[in-house]
Design a protein that fits this description.
190 residues, alpha/beta, five-stranded parallel sheet, 9 helices, globular
Length: 190
């Protein structure tokens, strides 16, 4: 069963791969496209050529690293901390539309409470990234008008994997990036 079906009610991505061309920012979150799905690299090349900012989050340098404008290499299993810190950053900086959030997030107060402990310094300690790198990543997320997150299967392979995916989905909902042109979630299966 696909994790997205548990959280979104759909057993597939919320967008299609061709929409990466309409995104402002594409985040390959543990999605090693180049080595696992080589035919999809043509979409990365077209997106990069079109000026889409590509961020790769993976604890390893891989062939997918060459497509990215920047890569963040958090410690394995700390993706949830990185996502919860991003939620806190977006909330603190008012980079969300409360009316849209009320339409798309059930339990907003619980999400806010869960993200509260994840300050930039705590995320940096947990992930091994510098505070400057964490802040730069969070600013990109908060300022990008259209973001697609392409999630890799590795996210669900850690003890806290489901909660990490849940936080990434909540982050996309918070930024109003779940559905629409240049917005959404992709999975390797999608």
């Amino acid at each position: 069963s696909n994790t997205l079906s548990w959280f979104l009610g759909a057993n597939t991505s919320t967008t299609t791969v061709n929409e990466v061309l309409n995104a402002h920012t594409l985040i390959l979150w543990g999605a090693n496209i180049n080595e696992l799905y080589p035919p999809y690299t043509r979409w990365l090349e077209m997106a990069r050529d079109k000026g889409v900012r590509i961020i790769y989050i993976d604890c390893r340098k891989t062939r997918s690293s060459i497509w990215s404008n920047e890569q963040y290499m958090p410690r394995p299993g700390t993706d949830g901390a990185l996502a919860l810190g991003a939620i806190r950053f977006v909330l603190e900086n008012g980079a969300f539309d409360r009316a849209r959030v009320d339409e798309s997030i059930t339990g907003f107060e619980l999400m806010e409470k869960g993200a509260q402990p994840w300050s930039v310094d705590k995320v940096a300690q947990a992930t091994g990234l510098s505070e400057d790198a964490v802040t730069a990543f969070y600013r990109t997320l908060a300022e990008s008008p259209r973001t697609i997150i392409w999630m890799g299967g590795c996210l669900s392979r850690y003890t806290n994997g489901l909660q990490s995916i849940r936080a990434i989905i909540a982050l996309q909902a918070l930024r109003d990036n779940l559905i629409g042109s240049g917005r959404g979630l992709l999975t390797m299966e999608g």
